[in-house]
Amino acid sequence: MQRLALFIGALMFALALAGAYLGASLVAVYVERASVRQASAALAEGGYGWASVRADGLALHVSGPAPDEAARLNALSEINKVVAGARVRDAITIVESDALHAPKFSLELLRNGDGISLIGLIPAATGREAVLQSIADLGHDTSVTDMLEATDYPEPEGWKAAVDYALDSLRLLPRSKLSVTPGRVVITAITDSQADKTRIETLLSESRPEGVAIVLKISAPRPVITPFSLRLIIDERGARFDSCSADTEDMRQRILAAARASGYDGADNACTIGLGAPSPRWGEAVVLSIRALKELGGGSLTFADADVTLVAQQDARQIDFDRIVYNLEQDMPDVFSVHAVLPPKPVLEGRNVASEPPEFLATRSPEGLVQMRGRNRNERSRLSTANFARALFGGDNVHDTTRVDTSLPDGWPLRVLVGVEALGKLHHGVLTVHEDMLEIRGITDNPEARTEITQLLSDKLGDASRYQISVTYDEALNQVVIPPTPEECVAAINAILAERQIVFAPSSTRIEGEAQVIISRIAEAMVDCSEVPMEIGGHTDSQGREAMNQTLSQARAEAVLDALLSREVLTSFLTAKGYGEAHPIADNDTEEGRAANRRIEFRLLDQTSDGGTAEDDAAGGEAAASDDDAGVDSAPAGDDPPEIDETLEDGEIVEGGPVGEDGEMIEEGDVIEDADLVEDGDGTSGTEE
């Protein structure tokens, strides 16, 4: 009994000793970890990321490469704020500083009249006093702003020669800036005239010392031209300028090129470059006017600021004159006002021998554009004809350049209106109205158009009126245009994207630059596909976090959707979806592969499915139809066949599967023949031949 009591006492003592040891160990581990954590946080907050902490019992060993002694002491001080200094063991090493490099010396000399500013860092050997003395020699009234700094380093090679050259050159340049670096001087200056510019450039080039490179940026102010004028004459002697003004060198070359196309063979200095142009589009207005003068066959063109006078030759046809002047007025930039003159034909014995018979001409193009030119009897009939044509053909499709001629016969306005109505029955054609004849000819998509035009002219003009009809029926124009299939719509859009992808800037969702052109092409391709359900899929490469790529791809797909909406594309059938990096089409380990993976794709959807493709639903539909034809009932609830995610090839063995085309279940070990197994959009499986 006594031995048992001793044994139990010894056992309890051992257990207590073991518990105490275990508890002390746990406390020590906790203290070590807490100390390391607190010390590391203190170093991070203080900006001492180069230091690291390691625990060894209660002692903390701090190590790392300190940039200098001050950084080492500061790091230890930060640790002492959270851990007792007696526990810290300093193992920090000091990194030796690299040898100091010589500073980059530079000198800026800015002169504006009598004021000169000096800015820069120069070697002490150059001598601030020597530089200031050289500046003082320019004149007694020269004021100097000294912002120079000097440091005691040797002069680099080429420095002294460059400084001396700049100080000597400053005497020639009252309005200038000279930038000096070792062996190089950049001179920017303004001179009083072109001749002065040439003289100074020659002097500066000749005085350049050996081993010093110079860059000359010297300009001469342009003269102010008032008024900004131009006069070009084209006649039997050819084309020539009486005066010519241009606002830039590029515009001068464009004006001269247009003049040469009209027969000008003079010198390039015929046009003076100066200030005072009434519009930044001066050159564009001049080029348009020169082309119009050439199309008229000659005459004179005069610009006085924004006033443009175009005088044609006497032999110009009135109808051509009206058309050319109208086109010029429509194309001319804002601000410019065109005054066009067609001189009267010469009169012999009281009769205009060169007069032309009055005419009204209207053309309708296959695209539906209508151009009316020629003459009308008065302003009221001209406006009535224009308004009637706009109501018949659409306001934006009608261009009216007709002019008033009060000498026309009384029945002229009626014949013009009736002729325009007859033109509306043609797909495209031409209407010509003469004093004693109305002629209409063209192509129609209506087999009864000729009869309808005949009845219209007879009813409105009378049976005795003279008219001529030459109308041809084109059956091809009457065929119904078959819209593209949904598959063709998606293929056309993806063909555009295959040619050139929509490219986004890194981490950006903005559509800019060439991507805007691609979006416009897609919008044009969707004109006949606006009700085709499609998905706009955004894809990224594998760089960056997966969640970030998913969000970015979704935002880019929505950006494409918004861009199409801004181009008036019906987007109610479009869905934007981001896939992130989940579906690469190329290797993400190469730049080319990553570029290919950053893409936008269009995918055909079916309105009746939840996110599946139309092809998937079509496959399921065919399978269902096969089952019905074979007389197979639907599988009862709870007996759904297993889903198969991959396509099975001929000869492939499966472990069991869905109902085959013949209505039988595919058993384990069966061999697939003549059919692929696919997964329908609703999760069940069917067959596809």
Keywords:
alpha/beta, Histidine-containing Protein, Chain: A, hypothetical protein tt1634, 5 domains
Task: Explain this structure.
- With 689 residues, this protein is of the alpha/beta class.
- The chain has 5 domains: 16-94, Histidine-containing Protein, Chain: A (2-Layer Sandwich); 106-219, hypothetical protein tt1634 (3-Layer(aba) Sandwich), CATH 3.40.1520.20; 229-346; 357-478, 3-Layer(aba) Sandwich (hypothetical protein tt1634), CATH 3.40.1520.20; 486-604, 60s Ribosomal Protein L30, Chain: A (2-Layer Sandwich), CATH 3.30.1330.
- It is 35% helix and 24% strand.
- It contains 16 helices and 30 strands.
- The strands form 8 sheets. Strands 19, 20, 21, 22, 23, 24 and 25 form a 7-stranded mixed sheet that branches.
- Helix 8 (318-331) links the parallel strand 15 (307-312) and strand 16.
- Helix 1 crosses helix 2 and helix 12 (486-499) packs antiparallel against helix 13.
- Mean pLDDT is 80; it is low at 348-354 and 609-689.
Largest β sheet strand count, sense and barrel closure: 7 strands, mixed
Proportion of beta-strand residues: 15-25%
The beta-strand count equals 30
Radius of gyration: 45 Å
Mean pLDDT reading = 80
- The total number of structural domains is 5
Please state the overall shape, judged from the principal axes of the Cα atoms.
Answer: flat
Number of helices: 16
The CATH architecture category of the largest domain equals: 3-Layer(aba) Sandwich
